[in-house]
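Q: Joint fold for the lines below.
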Amino acid sequence: MSQILSLKNIVKRYHKNTAVDDVSFDVKKGSIFGLLGPNGAGKTSIIRIITTITGADEGEVLLDGVKLNNNHPAEIGYMPEERGLYKKMKVGEQLLYLAQLKGLPYDEAKKSILHWMDKFEIRDWWNKKVEELSKGMQQKIQFIATVMHGPKLLILDEPFSGLDPVNTNLIKKEISELRDKGISIIFSTHRMEQVEEICEDIVLINHGKKILEGKVSDIKDKHKENKYLLEFDGAMPSSIRGEHFDVITESPNHWIIQIREGHNSNELLRVLIENDIHIKTYKEILPTLNQIFIKKVQGESHE
Amino acid sequence: MNKLWIIIKREYLTRVTKKTFILVTILTPLGIGLIGFVSGYFASQAGKSAKNIVVIDESGILLEEHLSSSYLQFTFSDQEIDSLRRNYTREGYDIVLHMKRQELVPGEKVLVQYYSKDKLSMPALESIERSLASAIRSYKIELSGINKDALAALDTNVDLENALSSGEVGDGEATGSTASRYSTIISTILSYAMGFLMYMVIFIFGSMVMRSVMEEKINRIVEVIISSVKPFQLMLGKILGVGLVGLTQMAIWIILIPVILLIIATVLGGSNISQEDLQMANELINESEGGPNQIALFIQEFKSLNWWLILPVFIIFFFGGYLIYASFFAAIGSTISDDLGESQQFMIPIIIPVIIAFVMIPSVFNDPDGPIAVFGSLFPLLSPILMPARLPFDPPLWQVFLSIFILIVSIIFFIWLAARIYRVGIFMYGKKITFKELSKWMFYKG
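A: Joint structure:
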């Protein structure tokens, strides 16, 4: 079994409005998976179904091959987008409480919490109240609350929002360490640059429907538009234009071109060399996920 | 159910260890003690200053044996009024009573003058007036030659005509009438006390549940918790945890308040004074004679109430009423997304039944087995207040058990209902919720 999570034809309706409309996807074990979509697309509804907060109206969810049941919350760690802790409660007590609710016995819970606090070098916060901590500090506590019970599956909803670069890197490092330990991570966001960096596979949701899924590299490949960056010395003879490519942006010695259909990049290169143009850079420009995302989402709303 | 226990424990411990809880729990009995101390102190001072009365009677109507009161000491003097007025404080008297030579004319008031350095309190004045009136009456009786025993018998008969009924009526004896009257007073006080306690508990601890639900929703921790436990468990854990806080506070008060009052009674100079106060109070309430007996009767009546029924049933209704209303408060708390103002519209339907129950308490006293009392003590939104109020009047047992049964069924129903609203409400943000929507939530699928 290589899938940690399978969603099969999930439908969720709130009154008349369909929040999740027939969505299916799989998450590979030990991978970082991106659940993407603009605000209000239905990401949170999907996450709430996976975390057993709500039930799906149709379809089923398999966690590690087993249909979701009441024991599964202990195997899932969930960090909601809107972070929340009891402000007046002490850090240690609070984490102990949350860990016990996840089903961890007291001693194990304490051991695990201390392990994580040592890791983040915040052991002396045990007796501090949450309201005395800065936002970044609270985020660390929230992260510990998500991972302390050793879940198989982590669901992080916008994990870097509100974090400074130092803490962002710290959490990124932890995420990849956890992945290396075989924990699967669902990473929900609308910040595409982070996804490109971290995720292997993604699914893109809009208006409750799945509109794109696959490996990040495949998706980019599939959506490439044959654009190339061309940097050169000297002048470009005007005869070279027209047949093989269109110039999209033009500045002296720096062109972005799009190769026409039926031609390939090597053909163009040959033509350039034959014309004795001194090429400094010749590089394919792949679309960013952000561009694909915007294109897809806008395409949807034009329909 | 292990998780439910963890939630109850946290809800309980975070509240019980709060400084404000500890302060309120300890300061309230101390405050009551202080009030008791102050009023007891002043009462004892007042009692002391009114003690010694010197009487100059020029009319010859007053007789020493007719002027008797347990806390007023009358002494007759032959001195001239002018010299006594100058010297009475030095001679150890507090008040001088001067009754001039006069004829007793039926229907006309008898005038007696008094001199006192201190201003006399109303109770003291009334008490002296009553003593004098009673002495003059005795004089008139002797004068008219009416058989005293016959008159006394008539008096007793008048007292027997008591409109308030009680379980103990039917003895027909003279003491029986006094007893039933006391038990009615005790029952009335007890009913109001229990009703009021219920009312306080519903609002203090019910709104505690509401605030707690709101707090979790507003600071968003609810999403983290609901990913571990069912909304129903969280809500029930909260209601039970807060309920236990309430029981703890009540238990501490039930122990502390009498202890503190007892300590104060001892500090104030032994139990004499408080007994004297009681006696004075008794004399004010009841003009009949034989003070000490009445305290004994009062205590005896207090003891003879069916406590074996009242206490456990009260505790059942206390907790049951709390559970019903707290589940309403929890449901309301879950619908509020940011400000308290929103909660007002939903508070009204909760407050109304409580107010109605309170308004109905007097009808329960007037006719403890009448249709209003029976309905009120069975209907689950009213019964937590009205059944305890009815208990001291010996309601039929089957009604008590039927009421408990209805209460338990209602608790289950209302908690279920509240949970249906709660599980939707805690995830609804930024929208004002109407009653229509609330009713739709109840039918949402899990």
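Q: Anything notable?
A: The longest strand of chain A covers residues 3-14. Residues 236 and 277 of chain A are 7 Å apart (CA to CA).
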